[in-house]
Amino acid sequence: MKLANGRGRIVGSIAAVALGFGFAAVLAARADAPPTPVHASAIQIEQIQSEDVKLPAEFQMSMYEHVVEEIGKTKRFAHVYRDGDRDAASAPDLVTLHCTVTGFKQGSAMERQVTTVAGATSITVHLEFTDKNGQKLFQNDVKGNVRFFGENLRATYNFSKQVAGVVRQDFAAVTPAKK
Predict the structure, then answer these.
(1) Helix (H, G, I), strand (E, B) or coil at 7
(2) CA 143 to chain centre
(3) What backbone phi and psi angles, to 5 degrees, belong to 116?
(4) Do residues 45 and 68 make contact, with C-beta atoms less than 8 angstroms apart?
(5) What contacts 79, CB < 8 A, 6 or more positions away?
(6) What are the pLDDT digits (tens) for 76-134?
(7) Do the beta carbons of residue 95 and residue 43 sit within 8 Å?
(8) CA of 156: how far to CAs of 102, 120, 125, in Å?
(9) d(CA 61, CA 91)
């Protein structure tokens, strides 16, 4: 179907430019991701750090517990160690996940129930994955939020799902040991 006065070309050009900008934004967000999946049999998850951002303790603990659980579900590692677990030192290809909260806005579940445009809770966290020697493998920024329905702590669960997505994308699945 041809539009009169060349509008078809203009609309097509605008769509191509928008698609190009969207693709560039995706590339920019993943610029520090590894080009091929990282192979590691173990990961140690450090406690969530929140030095510059005031984060309630219940959010900090909930985030940590959800991240440990969701990374375990990814099946990318034979062992998922908690912060301070001494057994982690014996893993030859240990990866450590460092999480630093860079943004937090506590919303209101009551406002979310009354209106769909107010009351959102959001958490922004900088993830850094390092090898056993402390060398940075890659980093990523992840956001968890609850916008419509649910309690504020639901944002911590949504955050952990985003972290699990990064792990699934950037780490190779663990291969089972041969018998």
Answers:
(1) helix
(2) 6
(3) -95, 0
(4) yes
(5) 41, 42, 43, 87, 88, 91
(6) 999 999 999 999 999 989 999 999 999 988 776 665 555 565 667 788 999 999 999 99
(7) yes
(8) 14, 13, 11
(9) 25
Nearest to 73 by CA among 112, 43, 114: 43
Rounded CA-CA distance 154/159 in Å is 9
Distant-in-sequence contacts of 112-115, Cβ < 8 A, 24+ apart: 112/146, 112/147, 112/148, 112/149, 112/150, 113/149
55: which 2 tokens?
């984060």
> What is the pTM (predicted TM-score) of this model?
0.73
**83 vs 96: CA distance, rounded Å:** 9
Distance of CA 32 to the CA centre of its chain: 13
